[in-house]
Amino acid sequence: MSADQFIESLSGLLPQGYAWPRDPGSVLMAVIRSEAAELSAHTAAVHAAVRQWQPSTTVARLAEWEASCGLPDACFPGDAVSTRRASLLRTLRGHERPLEDSSSAAPGAIAQICADVGYPGAVVIYNTPMRAGMRVGRQLGALDGRLHITVPVQSRPLRVGQHVGQRLVTRNVADADLNCYLLRVLPARFSPNVIFA
Q1: CA 73, CA 91: separation in Å to the nearest integer?
Q2: Which of 31, 34, 55, 157 is the most interior residue, by most CB within 10 Å?
Q3: Could you tell me the pTM of the whole model?
Q4: Higher model confidence: residue 128 or residue 190?
């Protein structure tokens, strides 16, 4: 609440009569104005403290939140507060998505995980090698756990005179290791193969 709102509320609580003047120049209203300013400052400080203890808005307590969640993330290093806070929220929330085949490694769920960490448009397919002699309509091959995840990234053509060490492909998220992250969050029976295209 603002100081003006506190002044209005406090002056409304005063009893009626000549002993309780509401004239803006009176001593009583000067006392109410000073109390209203203190209450307003206290309310603002309380709201600021609450924001610092919430993981989605914290800045001062971010290191404490990271320590309790086992961060910083080795797969997504970064010093920016927004990057650190996004990693914290990703760790706290986890990945709860509708799954196509009752597995936490369903293609749709993995594509959503990639989108959550900054790689939208990922295409996930299982390794299903072709086998001759199958009847029409039957699945070719068997699921062996190998997942091929094609992630679109911004790229630029190779040109002569490119500096040594300069990236040929520009990724959506700088210094992020998507394969490292997927190995950690997917069940152990799956082996992801990330392809940046």
Answers
A1: 9
A2: 55
A3: 0.55
A4: 190
